[in-house]
């Protein structure tokens, strides 16, 4: 046999086999195209292209060939594990790529481990026997031929940088292999041309493939990312002028809600890109809702970053539900008009590869956890400026540790980052700066723009025109009901933010019983209904609302971000200071549209339902007033928030905001009945930090040494109340159908999903999943979906099972409806 006689994959019916050797050249050519715009030495680019070409050397194997042609079970070792065997066997040929044999072995494992995890099979003798002596000779010949195509390949980094390269390389190869394996891009070619002749064909196909997939990198634009007819705000002006260091940079934008932090980040990111610190962007947000909002906002501007049309993608599990994203898919890539290709949109991991990506922070954090395809995510992010928004929402010890690790990982490959926040505590700020390897700022000034360890601007004027928000305490929920009833009667747009969904449902029922027009928004709606309620909420209470709606919205934390709402009157359950500041950001928000004279009250006032922090007689201090909402946040932080807030009597943003946040998190001696709660929180924090450290990838290890690489669910990006996903269905004469559609599709299933606390759901007699009508509806679901999602028919009266019902205007209801 010869090198062209080994198949790369099964031939299509009636078609021809594509030789594995040609496929390897295809993938090497794609890697060349992906590497072309990167600022790397020529010998390094040649080495990476050669590595990509060598990735499937293990397909030259009798075991693999017999599996394809005869359907035989494959012997010892899968083809990508056999790749490592051949590379080790041919070390004499490859010794010129790196001087140290142990570096080369780490490198071989990185080449082989392109299927989402490193090779763990070490029975090299058994794999060698199963592959066959004939294959060994041809694989050696193939290696020599591939080396002749990239003769300048050389790996000349110091040993301490080798581990980092072995993490990055599998991601590059995985992307190149994804494209090179696509028969649409690379249709089968019959054996014939020699290696050099076929490389010319492959290079032409690769250039077209990278462009059609949306992975080509347009040239950077020199025009400002913010149009000239915009009036820049103070933070945006600061972003234009602050000095940038050589090499990787970490910037922190700390400013109020509504101050234009996103545009400031884009200005800074453009300057970083023009300085060679990245060729793309990834916006990481805390939730899918905030990611969707950022996507809508960024889509209008990011095209100005490039001379050509960039690819733009939304990266989270429900990206297909975004109308703006659907519009971009298959849209023509006109000048400065971003678009998203089908190939990028097909998988949220691929979405990270777009020139500009927007998604949940989870997609980025997964690059620092030992999950399948972590290195692909790492490769995708390494070329980008990482922009993390709402960083204060990632201060939980588990997520904070992950974010620190992500920053270390990103900087290790030369990446730069921008962190945005309105209410980040100074200790979290210091921890993140330390993780990036920069000194944290000493100044506590707010607002502030900081390039960590290099420069800081603290004379940033405020854009706040509403003035301080006064704070008043309401001693019980009944007082809130009275206040809201009176306010609505005066035509106010009012809001009551409740900490618990059950409390929000109860509040709406009590308001409606009083004749008050009340709306409800929380996270325990099926997605189709939540989207419908959000649209109604934006219309009634949003930026363009009429002046005197005379209604009250009862909501949970879902209104703290992503929804641009404007209320005249606000009530909130007691919460930590950062949450209360976020909520207060929706009070008297758009003063340019509704100045004080147009409001039904004389000044912005935040009413907080809370017991007196000066009267604490037992550990149930908060439970006596807030019931279920008392358990949403740590009790000691709740008390400190109450003490700081009512002592200050106002939220004075920006001048007094930093002190209020710090006082609300750590100020004052706790009353004796609450000290146990603080000790428990601190202990849980240590446990969460330790849990994160055990899960995170060891940065000192090479790729092959990393353990794990299981499903994403086995290494969560965040800890919290475990959720159980239900899929709500309605019975029809045609069987079970989605809640608001006439057929089961990915879109209609997602629109019918609802999540609830697993401990509550699992205690109920949920519908039997082996019932014929349920099995018929789920027949096309993959096994993992069958295991994790529970289909729940909803009766005409809303009943799901005993103790659980669903109302499309109220949501998922536990207990009696």
Automatic annotation (TrEMBL):
GO terms for molecular function: ATP binding; hydrolase activity; metal ion binding; nuclease activity; RNA binding; RNA helicase activity. Residues 242-442 form the Helicase ATP-binding domain. It comes from the Bacteria. The keyword ATP-binding applies. Residues 13-179 form the HD Cas3-type domain. InterPro entries: Cas3-like_dom, CRISPR-assoc_Cas3_HD, CRISPR-assoc_Cas3_HD_sf, DEAD/DEAH_box_helicase_dom, DEAD_box_RNA_helicases, Helicase_ATP-bd, Helicase_C-like, Helicase_Cas3_CRISPR-ass_core. SUPFAM superfamilies: P-loop containing nucleoside triphosphate hydrolases. CDD domains: Cas3''_I. GO terms for biological process: defense response to virus. Pfam families: Cas3-like_C_2, Cas3_HD, DEAD. Keywords: Antiviral defense, ATP-binding, Helicase, Hydrolase, Metal-binding, Nuclease, Nucleotide-binding. PANTHER family: CRISPR-ASSOCIATED ENDONUCLEASE_HELICASE CAS3, DEAD-BOX ATP-DEPENDENT RNA HELICASE 47, MITOCHONDRIAL. In the N-terminal section; belongs to the CRISPR-associated nuclease Cas3-HD family. This is CRISPR-associated helicase, Cas3 family. It comes from Lutimaribacter pacificus.
């Amino acid at each position: 046999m010869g090198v062209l006689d080994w198949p790369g994959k099964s031939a299509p019916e009636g078609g021809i086999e594509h030789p594995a050797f040609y496929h390897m050249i295809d993938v090497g050519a794609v890697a060349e195209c992906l590497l072309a715009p990167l600022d790397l030495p020529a010998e390094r680019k040649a080495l990476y292209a050669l590595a990509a070409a060598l990735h499937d050397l293990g397909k030259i194997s009798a075991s693999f060939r017999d599996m394809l042609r005869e359907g035989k079970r494959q012997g010892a070792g899968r083809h990508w594990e056999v790749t490592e065997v051949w590379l080790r066997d041919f070390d004499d040929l490859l010794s010129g790529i790196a001087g140290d044999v142990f570096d080369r072995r780490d490198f071989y494992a990185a080449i082989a481990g392109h299927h989402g995890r490193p090779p763990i099979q070490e029975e090299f003798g058994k794999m060698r026997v199963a592959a066959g002596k004939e294959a060994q000779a041809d694989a050696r010949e193939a290696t020599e031929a591939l080396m002749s195509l990239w003769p300048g390949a050389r790996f000349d980094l110091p040993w301490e940088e080798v581990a980092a390269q072995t993490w990055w390389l599998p991601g590059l190869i995985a992307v190149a292999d994804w494209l090179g394996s696509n028969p649409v891009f690379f249709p089968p070619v019959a054996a014939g041309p020699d290696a050099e002749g076929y490389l010319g064909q492959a290079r032409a196909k690769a250039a077209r493939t990278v462009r059609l997939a949306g992975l080509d990198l347009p040239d950077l634009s020199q025009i400002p990312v913010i149009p000239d007819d915009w009036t820049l705000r103070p933070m945006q002006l600061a972003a234009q002028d602050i000095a940038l260091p050589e090499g990787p940079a970490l910037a922190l934008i700390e400013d109020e809600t509504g101050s234009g932090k996103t545009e400031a980040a884009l200005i800074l990111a453009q300057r970083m890109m023009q300085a060679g610190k990245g060729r793309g962007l990834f916006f990481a947000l805390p939730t899918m809702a905030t990611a969707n909002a950022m996507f809508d906002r960024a889509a209008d501007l990011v095209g100005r970053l490039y001379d050509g049309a960039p690819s733009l993608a939304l990266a989270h599990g429900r990206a297909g539900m975004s109308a703006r994203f659907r519009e971009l898919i298959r849209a023509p890539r006109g000048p400065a008009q971003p678009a998203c290709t089908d190939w990028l949109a097909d998988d949220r991991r691929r979405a990270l590869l777009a020139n500009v990506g927007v998604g949940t922070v989870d997609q980025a954090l997964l690059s620092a956890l030992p999950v399948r395809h972590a290195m692909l995510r790492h490769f995708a992010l390494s070329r980008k400026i990482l922009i993390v928004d709402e960083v204060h929402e990632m201060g939980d010890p588990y997520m904070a540790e992950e974010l620190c690790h992500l920053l270390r990982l990103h900087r290790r490959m030369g990446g730069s980052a921008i962190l945005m926040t309105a209410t980040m505590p100074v200790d979290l700020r210091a921890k993140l700066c330390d993780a990036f390897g920069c000194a944290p700022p000493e100044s506590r000034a707010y607002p502030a723009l900081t390039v960590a360890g290099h420069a800081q601007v603290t004379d940033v004027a405020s854009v706040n025109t509403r003035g301080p928000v006064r704070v008043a305490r309401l001693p019980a929920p009944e007082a809130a009901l009275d206040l809201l009833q009176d306010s609505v009667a005066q035509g106010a747009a009012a809001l009551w933010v409740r900490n618990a969904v059950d409390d929000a449902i109860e509040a709406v029922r009590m308001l409606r019983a009083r004749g008050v027009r009340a709306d409800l928004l929380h996270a325990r709606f099926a997605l189709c209904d939540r989207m419908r309620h959000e649209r109604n909420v934006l219309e009634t209470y949003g930026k363009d609302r009429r002046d005197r709606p005379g209604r009250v919205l009862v909501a949970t934390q879902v209104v703290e971000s992503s929804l641009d709402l404007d209320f005249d009157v606000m009530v909130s359950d007691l919460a930590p200071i950062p949450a209360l500041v976020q909520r207060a950001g929706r009070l008297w928000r758009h003063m340019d549209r509704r100045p004080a004279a147009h409001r039904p009250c004389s000044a912005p006032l935040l009413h907080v339902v809370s017991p007196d922090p000066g009267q604490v007689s037992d550990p149930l201090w908060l439970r006596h007033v807030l019931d279920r909402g008392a358990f949403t946040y740590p009790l000691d932080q709740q008390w400190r928030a109450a003490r700081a807030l009512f002592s200050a009597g106002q939220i004075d943003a920006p001048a007094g905001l930093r002190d209020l946040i710090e006082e609300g998190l750590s100020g004052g001696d706790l009353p004796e009945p609450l000290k146990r709660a603080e000790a428990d929180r601190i202990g849980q924090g240590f446990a969460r930090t330790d849990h994160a450290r055990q899960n995170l990838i060891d940065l000192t290890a090479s790729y092959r040494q990393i353990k794990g690489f299981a499903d994403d669910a086995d290494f969560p990006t965040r800890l919290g109340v475990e959720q159980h996903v239900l899929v709500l269905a309605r019975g029809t004469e045609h069987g079970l159908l989605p809640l608001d559609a006439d057929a089961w599709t990915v879109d209609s299933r997602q629109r019918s999903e609802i999540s609830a606390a697993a401990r509550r759901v699992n205690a109920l007699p949920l519908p039997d999943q082996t019932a014929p009508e349920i099995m018929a509806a789920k027949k096309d679901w993959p096994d993992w979906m069958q295991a994790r999602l529970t289909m729940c028919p909803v009766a005409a009266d809303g009943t799901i099972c005993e103790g659980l019902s669903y109302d499309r205007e109220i949501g998922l209801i536990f207990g009696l409806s």
